[in-house]
Every structure is written in C-alpha cells, then in structure tokens.
Design goal:
magnesium, Rossmann fold, tRNA processing, metal-binding, about 180 residues, 5 helices, ATP-binding, tRNA threonylcarbamoyladenosine biosynthesis protein TsaE, alpha/beta
Length: about 180
C-alpha cells in the first residue's frame, strides 16, 4: 500500500501551531512525525503545536544545536513523552544520535525536523509514520501543508484511526482551513 496524502492551505490567521495542536490530540505511541520544508516554513511552530496538543507545557524551541530534546507530558490526552529532533546538521552515520532516536521509540512520539535527511532505515524502524511537507507560497502569506500518511506498517489500522480523528478535529476546530485538490 502506498502513502496517502492530503494538502491544505493554512492561512496566516490560523497558523501551523493550531494545526499541530490537533495532531497532538491524536498521537499514538511509536509515532514518527517527519517535518520537511525550507528554513522559515514553520516546522518548529508545527512541532510546538503538536507538543501543546500532547499536554506538554514546556517551551518548544528548535533543537538545532541540541539535536535531540525530550519533553514529558503534563497529563494531556496521550500522556506520552515527545522526542524532538533536528536532523539538519547531523552527519551521516552518527550512530549515537541514531541509537538515541530509535531507543524507546515505541513508548513515545518522535518528531524530526528536516526529516528528509533521516536515513530510510531509521524511518522504517518506526511503526507509525506521518510526514509533513511545508512550503511557502509565492506571496509569502500563509503556508501550504501536505500530509503523507504511510500505511506501510503492521499498524496501518492505528494509522487509519488516527487519520480519522485528525480529520474530525480539523473539520470541527478549524473549518476555515482550506483543503487543496
């Protein structure tokens, strides 16, 4: 089964954090979010929203110089911890960072900025995968967001249920979010 995708235009008035927050309400253990897009597209804003939706009250910042940052939930809907990573400056074959990324992954949510740089073998080690592709429109107003749901796992039913929950939340909480295509 191949990836399924959805595309949205996120107006500046809504913001990527609000979208991420709804995803944070629907997370499951073992989930990997891969965030891809140019500098300034909103990857960290989306990540901060996911964390808020998970009940994490700590300030979420880009882990550019830390590479990996762990956060504990304060009792949100999932009560799962979050590992937030930035793979932009990670050298290929950085075994310590790769091991830290996959160690304990089934008991948390993992979110990787610059996810396109993550080796395919690491991506495949996660049981649930969702990829966000962010882009900036020519007029620089709002953001384009394409979401890829990867059902090629033994947990495809979990992913289908999560996708349904997210769709319901988006329709209910952000009805002005416009779907593309």
């Amino acid at each position: 089964m191949s990836e399924e995708s959805e595309e949205f235009f996120v107006p500046s008035g809504i913001g990527l954090g609000a979208v991420g927050e709804l995803f944070g309400h629907a997370v499951l253990p073992g989930l990997l979010f891969l965030l891809t897009g140019p500098m300034g597209a909103g990857k960290t804003s989306l990540a901060a929203g996911v964390a808020r939706g998970m009940g994490i009250t700590s300030r979420i910042a880009s882990p550019t110089f830390l590479y990996l940052q762990s956060y504990e939930s304060s009792g949100g809907p999932s009560s799962l911890p979050l590992l937030h990573a930035d793979w932009d400056r990670v050298a290929p074959g950085s075994e310590d960072l790769e091991e830290a990324l996959v160690s304990g992954a089934e008991d948390r949510v993992t979110l990787v900025e610059w996810g396109e740089k993550l080796p395919a073998s690491l991506v495949a080690s996660f049981s649930l995968r969702v990829r966000f592709l962010l882009s900036i429109p020519r007029d620089r107003e709002g953001r384009l967001l394409k979401i890829f749901w990867d059902p090629a796992t033994d947990r495809s039913e979990d992913l289908r249920l999560m996708r349904g929950t997210v769709r319901t939340l988006l329709d209910k909480k952000l009805p002005s979010l416009s779907r593309k295509g």
